[in-house]
Design a protein that fits this description.
mainly beta, eight-stranded antiparallel β-sheet, 3 helices, globular, binds 6-O-phosphono-beta-D-glucopyranose
């Protein structure tokens, strides 16, 4: 694993009083953004947004208090990037779940202050000996994280190979809620989903999604905006997406939470994942030289 010198990153990319690099838990480099609108932290490993909190709001992203911060391990919470496959590898169970993008150290490409005092950081990842051992293609990813009144994550995927390949993936967004049993997820009425807790059985959503047990669903062929209505926090989180045809809704509920070390007993109560994805039927082909951007924008509304 490469090591990173935060003073070098600050000298090259830091923005005074707005964007700084530090070494966080587990010696992982972390970017902190504080601007007029919000505070946010982002891990350079995985280009993973970890926290986002507009001023005068409760945190929007959920980050497990039991997260393991370790080189090469994914951090539980925020927005891990699942790529180049979503879920288990389609043909090789020994390969890491959700691909490798979330566990590798990305390169910082640039930072900028945008219109209306937004702050942006861009990360890059391209194929290496390590990635080619898991997936034999050339690629270049760019992830731009923009912090303003909303949080935006845009992942651009480029095929730099001379053969076509397909990918699946997700911006695996963990949202913070007061009590998952009291929320409603709007936007998926009438959509067909593969129910992963019922052997991928195809079902149709009727009305809003309510969570009163383990939920692990890939909603297919949907580009809809979803909103998480949280009556106890008296807010809605709007999940506006593009370049994505699947939406995954996941909550591990009680038993799985207890079984997974970096979740913990009651973790499931305070979180719901509504993931901007291309998965199962929505895997994406990409021709040599072509690119695709998958984007999510999270905003609190009332
Ligand atoms: C969800 C999947 O997106 O991610 C679930 O649909 C999975 O099946 C969950 O359990 C968490 O995955 P991981 O690898 O981060 O534990």
């Amino acid at each position: 694993m490469r090591t990173i010198d935060p003073s070098l990153l600050n000298a090259n990319f830091g923005i005074t009083k707005q964007l700084t690099f530090d070494i966080g838990p587990g010696d992982l480099p972390i970017v902190t953004i504080r601007n007029h609108h919000a505070t946010a932290t982002i891990s350079v490993q995985g280009a993973q947004a970890l926290t986002f909190q507009p001023h005068d709001e409760e945190p929007v992203l959920w980050l497990s208090p039991r997260s393991r911060y370790k080189a090469g391990r994914s951090i539980r919470g925020g927005i891990p990037i699942c790529w180049p496959w979503f879920g288990p590898h389609p043909s090789d169970a020994d390969k890491p779940q959700h691909g490798f993008a979330r566990t590798l150290l990305w390169e910082v490409l640039g930072t900028a202050v945008g219109e209306g005092d937004t702050s942006q950081i861009r990360f890059g990842l391209h194929d290496s000996e390590q990635t080619r051992a898991l997936w034999p293609y050339a690629f270049a990813l760019e992830c731009a994280v923009t912090v303003g009144p909303a949080l935006e994550v845009a992942l651009t995927i480029r095929n730099t190979d001379d053969v076509a390949w397909t990918w699946s993936g997700a911006l695996h967004t963990y949202l913070a809620v007061q009590d998952v049993a009291r929320i409603a997820v709007h936007g998926l009425d009438g959509v067909t989903y593969a129910d992963k807790v019922d052997d991928y059985e195809r079902k149709t959503q009727h009305g809003v999604v309510r969570i009163d047990g383990e939920v692990d669903r890939v909603y297919l062929a949907t580009t809809a905006i979803c909103t998480v209505d949280d009556p106890l926090l008296e807010r809605r989180i709007e999940i506006d997406k593009s370049g994505s045809r699947s939406t995954v809704v996941w909550n591990p509920w009680e038993q799985k939470s207890r079984e997974v070390a970096d979740l913990g007993e009651d973790a499931y109560r305070g979180m719901v994942c509504v993931e901007t994805a291309n998965a199962l039927d929505d895997v994406q082909p990409l021709a040599p030289g072509a690119e695709h951007t998958m984007r999510v924008r999270l905003a609190v509304t009332r």
